[in-house]
């Protein structure tokens, strides 16, 4: 349907904003987690989870404006098949300018209340399960500790865990970012993170929070494996 409406390039809508978001969010996230590792705070499972959550929250806050623009651009399509609110930005720079003109600096961080818990949970699960899974296969001597296969195995296990943990937060953050707003920048559909969860749960059931989990895994699975693989190898270098 996307290809018919927007052509093959439609599948890459918002790519520049997506790359900007990943660079900002993951750059900050992995840097903060590396600091925690170097400080010896991730030695036990609780420390790894806490460090991953804090690192994810900081990264999500820094990257929030780029995620906002990415969501707006990806949702735009022909009126005949449009789903959700259409913001009609011409480009990534035009989107930033339009949001800033209408709602100021604060407007660029609209939806951040959904992004911070989303990435905090995902980051905590991702980094903690990656380290645990990698150590687990190495302790059983299935794979060598310094091998790329051990990193790959840890990333594959982590990808499944992240998709299951993040799916509800993905649904909530997408709706908060993409909802229409009034002149004051207040959402017209949801008042905030908790209100969005309650509305989805009451109107669509608890399974409504897991809408699109297949697509979530198809994105997060390879993303988790590759990002953790390159992060691990680059750190060793």
Structure, described:
The structure is a single chain. It contains 8 helices and no strands. It is mainly alpha-helical and about 240 residues long. The protein has 2 domains: about 110 residues, Mitochondrial carrier fold (Alpha/alpha barrel), CATH 1.50.40; about 120 residues, no CATH class. The N and C termini lie far apart (about 45 Å). The relative contact order is 0.11. It is a multi-pass membrane protein. Pfam families: Mito_carr (PF00153).
List keywords for this structure.
single chain; 237 residues; mainly alpha; Mitochondrial carrier fold; 2 domains; 8 helices; 73% helix; 0% strand; mitochondrion inner membrane; Mito_Carrier_Antiporter; transmembrane
Give a brief description:
The protein is mainly alpha-helical and 237 residues long. Helices cover 73% and strands 0% of the residues. The chain has two domains: 1-110, Alpha/alpha barrel (Mitochondrial carrier fold), CATH 1.50.40; 112-236, no CATH class.
